[in-house]
Write a structure and sequence with these properties.
Blueprint lengths: L1 H5 L5 H7 L3 H10 L2 E2 L2 E2 L5 H6 L7 H15 L4 H28 L1 H23 L2 H21 L8 H31 L10 H37 L37 E3 L5 E3 H10 L14 H4 L6 H18 L1 H15 L3
Antiparallel strand pairs: 1-2, 3-4
Helix pairs in contact: 3-5, 6-7, 6-14, 7-10, 7-13, 8-9, 8-10, 9-10, 9-11, 10-13
Length: about 350
């Protein structure tokens, strides 16, 4: 490859092997100035004036850059192996530290993670000028800030719990549907269905990846804000305490999630919503307990903290994917919030050690 790039050959067989036109091969000879500490300049200045990168197709430019990259990194196998070891070691150590932090100080861990998930994508999208994401992010932040403000007020208004759970449940369902549409678009593109509608593969793939990103990102972020609001509201109402005993006694006709009276008996069919009884015999509005478990990421009774049987609660097979989707969002939180930080740390270590 070195001889081919450093000394472009007019041989057609060589050109076909690289799949580059003769002009691109001349360009490669001009661009490769220094490899392995040896300066190469073979009088390509005339070609440099006549041919520029704008004259090449995107595919030809990509192949040329690919060839230049191989020439630049030839003989650096030991350095690359060292960089891979640094990456693996950093990932393992960071994962151990994050697990210990989450176990010992869950509140600070959740707050820092939520802040990073909210800010890190904003930094990259602003830098890349992704205005559509910035508009949706601003809209989400405005509404969520208002809902969070209402949820953290004391005394808590009677309508606030319903407002909070309605907004975050709506956001959860929208993110779920958006993610499904994005994933379907990616699959259809891989199977060539986009060609039936005369849509370019790159356009169809960009559409699918964008929707999948929107769905997963706002799904993760919305669930974390919902969990924080659920803790604030339940503690304010008094029937729930994250640590210790509740400050109020729960009556049989009061929902511990929203603090409102239960008007429909468990055995009756409600017009708007039903009443649900947990295995601990505490009763709740079905809408409230679903929001508490799915959106608020709670798997215990809001009053006595007995574990909730999610399989019994979601007996309908069409509702079980929502539970699995929630678990997927929990796993993706690490990738969204901490993976960019870890990659940046690895790059910093490589820079200090002089690895490229």
């Amino acid at each position: 490859m070195r001889g081919l790039i450093g000394h472009p050959s007019p041989n057609p067989e060589v050109a076909s092997e690289l799949l580059l036109p003769a002009s691109a091969l001349k360009m490669a000879g001009v661009f490769e100035v220094e490899v392995d500490g040896v300066h190469h300049d073979h009088g390509g200045h005339e070609d440099d004036k006549q041919i520029d990168m704008s004259q090449l197709s995107p595919e030809e430019r990509w192949r040329l850059e690919h060839a230049r990259m191989h020439a630049k990194h030839r003989g650096h196998e030991a350095m690359h192996a060292e960089m891979v070891l640094i990456l693996i070691a950093t990932l393992v150590i960071a994962q151990l530290l994050l697990v210990q932090w989450k176990q010992r100080h869950p509140k600070s861990y959740n707050l820092v993670t939520l802040f990073q998930m909210w800010v890190v994508p904003l930094y990259f999208t602003t830098k890349l000028h992704w205005w559509r994401f910035l508009i949706t992010w601003l809209l989400f932040s405005t509404i969520t800030a208002f809902v969070t403000f209402r949820a953290t007020r004391k005394p808590l208004e009677r309508t606030t719990p319903r407002l909070v759970y309605k907004w975050f449940l709506l956001l959860y369902k929208m993110s779920y549907a958006t993610g499904i549409v994005g994933y379907s678009a990616i699959m259809f593109t891989l199977f060539g269905v986009n060609l039936i509608f005369r849509i370019k593969p790159e356009d169809a793939m960009d559409f699918g990846v964008s929707l999948l990103f929107y769905g997963l990102y706002y799904g993760v972020l919305g669930r974390d804000f919902a969990e924080m609001c659920a803790d604030f509201m339940a503690s304010t109402i008094g029937y729930y305490s994250a640590s210790g005993m509740p400050t109020k006694h729960l009556s049989d006709d009061i929902c511990a999630v929203c603090g409102q009276q239960i008007l429909v008996d468990v055995s009756e069919e409600g017009i708007i919503e039903n009443t649900f009884r947990l295995s601990c015999n505490h009763v709740f509005h079905e809408f409230c307990i679903r929001g508490w478990c799915i959106v608020g990421k709670k798997q215990t009774c809001p009053y006595c903290k007995e574990k909730v049987d999610l399989q019994r609660m979601f007996s309908n097979p069409w509702e079980k994917p929502h539970v699995m989707y929630g678990q997927l969002l929990d796993w993706l939180r690490y990738l969204v919030a901490w993976q960019p930080v870890i990659i940046g740390l690895v790059q910093g270590i490589n820079y200090v050690l002089g690895l490229e």
